[in-house]
Design goal:
about 375 residues; alpha/beta; FAD/NAD(P)-binding domain; 5-stranded parallel beta sheet; 4-stranded mixed beta sheet; 8 helices; about 20% strand; globular
Length: about 375
C-alpha cells in the first residue's frame, strides 16, 4: 500500500481545525475495528479520526509504505509499472484508492477576482484567525460551506453565502440522528445499478450537516438567524463585480421538496417495519426562508468583501494516471470500481457500488466486492 504522506495524511494536512465527522461515532467502523470510546452518539474531531485510522493500520498489520507519492501509473505487458518517490513497482493489478477530493474545484472565473481579495478553500483554511476582519463571501452551501459560514459568523465577521444546489437535512429526526435513518431504512445500501440517474447521484453535493455535541441542525435558516446574507449562485465576474443568479427561491423549493420526500420515505419505512413506536412522532421542518431582496451583484473592489472562501466542492487528481481510462469529461471510466482496463480498480469514489461508498463505514462492502473481482482476474490471468 503506497501512501503519499503519513497514514491518514488528508486528515492531518487538509482539514480545518474545528472539523468533525458528519457521521456519529457508532457509525465509524472498518472491518474488525469499531469506535470504542465513551460517546457513541458524538462526532469525531480531526485528531480522533487520525487515531482511528492509525489504529486500524496497526491492528490489520497493513503493509503501508509512507512518503511514497505516486507520480506515474503506466501500462506494461502483463500488468502495470508504478513510479513513486520510494521507487518503482511492477504489478499485475492496481487499486486506485486516492479518493475524489484531492483538489478544490474552483470556477474558471476565480482568476478574475481582484488581487485585493484573499481567496481560501477548505484545504488551506484552518480557523477565523487567518481571515481578515472584513466581510467574507462563502461560495457554496453544502456541508463545508455552511460549517465555515457559521464559524466565521461566530467570530464576528459579516458573512455572505452564495447558494447553489444543495441537500437539506435535519441533524435529528423523530429523536434519532438522521444518518441512523439512512442506515436503518436501507437507503444507504442502495446499489449503484439500482439508481435511475447514477451520474447525477454521483455528483450530488454533501448534505447540510454538522457534528456537534448539541446535535444542532445547520441549514440556511440557521445561518440567516445568525446574521448571514444569502445570495444566488455565483455565475460570473465582470469588471470586478460578482454576478449572482436569481434562482434562490427555486433552489430553496427544490431542496425543501427533496428533504420532505426523504422524510416521507423514513416514515413509510418505520410504519412498514414496525419501528414507529420506537421513535418520536413524525415532524416536518419549516421551509427555507427566502430573502425579501437578494442582491444580484457585489463589487469585489469596494472593500466590502475582504476574503472569499470557495466551498465549491472537490475533484480527484488523476494527473499521475498515464493510462487511457478517462471519459470526455476527464472522469474515470469504471463499472462499480472495475476500471475500463484489465487489472485496474478503484475504491472510495462517490456511489461506487452503494450510496454509502464515500463514508468510513461504507467502504467495507464495496471493497469486498471489488477485491473478489480482482481475485478472479488474477486467477484467470496467472503470472507470466
Amino acid at each position: 500500500m503506497l501512501e503519499r504522506g503519513e497514514v491518514a495524511n488528508s486528515w492531518r494536512t487538509e482539514r480545518w481545525d474545528s472539523l468533525r465527522l458528519l457521521t456519529p461515532n457508532w457509525q465509524s467502523r472498518l472491518p474488525g475495528h469499531f469506535y470504542e470510546g465513551p460517546d457513541p452518539d458524538g462526532y469525531m474531531h480531526m485528531g480522533e479520526v487520525v487515531d482511528f485510522i492509525e489504529k486500524f493500520a496497526k491492528v490489520t498489520g497493513a503493509p503501508v509504505l509512507t512518503e511514497a507519492n505516486v507520480t506515474s501509473l503506466q501500462s506494461r505487458p502483463g500488468g502495470y509499472r508504478v513510479v513513486s518517490d520510494r521507487g518503482d513497482f511492477g504489478c499485475r493489478a492496481v487499486i486506485i484508492a486516492s479518493g475524489a477530493c484531492n483538489q478544490p474545484a474552483l470556477p474558471a472565473f476565480a482568476n478574475a477576482v481582484p488581487a485585493s481579495v484573499d481567496q481560501l478553500t477548505p484545504f488551506n483554511y484552518r480557523n477565523p484567525d487567518q481571515v481578515d476582519e472584513g466581510g467574507v463571501l462563502v461560495v457554496g452551501a453544502s456541508a463545508s460551506g455552511v460549517q465555515l459560514a457559521a464559524e466565521l459568523l461566530r467570530s464576528g465577521r459579516p458573512v455572505t453565502v452564495s447558494v447553489g444546489e444543495h441537500v437539506r437535512l435535519p441533524r435529528t429526526y423523530r429523536g434519532r440522528d438522521v444518518l441512523w435513518w439512512m442506515d436503518a431504512s436501507g437507503i444507504w445500501d442502495q446499489r449503484y445499478d439500482e439508481i435511475e440517474d447514477l451520474t447525477r447521484a454521483r455528483r450530488l453535493p454533501s448534505p447540510q450537516l454538522v457534528g456537534t455535541s448539541e446535535r444542532d441542525t445547520l441549514d440556511l435558516n440557521a445561518l440567516t438567524a445568525m446574521g448571514a446574507e444569502l445570495v444566488g449562485r455565483w455565475a460570473d465576474i465582470r469588471d470586478g463585480r460578482a454576478l449572482f443568479s436569481g434562482g434562490l427561491r427555486n433552489m430553496f423549493t427544490l431542496a425543501d421538496l427533496k428533504m420532505g420526500r426523504l422524510l416521507d420515505t423514513f416514515d413509510t419505512w418505520a410504519e412498514a417495519d414496525g419501528r414507529a413506536a420506537e421513535v418520536g412522532a413524525a415532524e416536518r421542518m419549516a421551509p427555507t426562508r427566502v430573502p425579501e431582496a437578494a442582491r444580484w451583484q457585489l463589487d469585489m473592489r469596494s472593500g466590502e468583501i475582504r476574503t472569499i472562501v470557495w466551498a465549491t466542492g472537490f475533484r480527484p487528481d488523476y494527473r499521475w494516471l498515464d493510462v487511457p481510462v478517462f471519459d470526455r469529461k476527464g472522469q474515470l471510466r469504471h463499472d462499480g470500481g472495475v476500471v475500463d482496463m484489465p487489472g485496474l480498480y478503484a475504491l472510495g469514489l462517490p456511489v461506487l457500488r452503494r450510496r454509502k461508498s464515500t463514508f468510513i463505514h461504507g467502504i467495507e462492502d464495496d471493497a469486498r466486492e471489488v477485491v473478489d473481482h480482482l481475485a478472479q482476474y488474477l486467477a484467470a490471468n496467472p503470472r507470466a
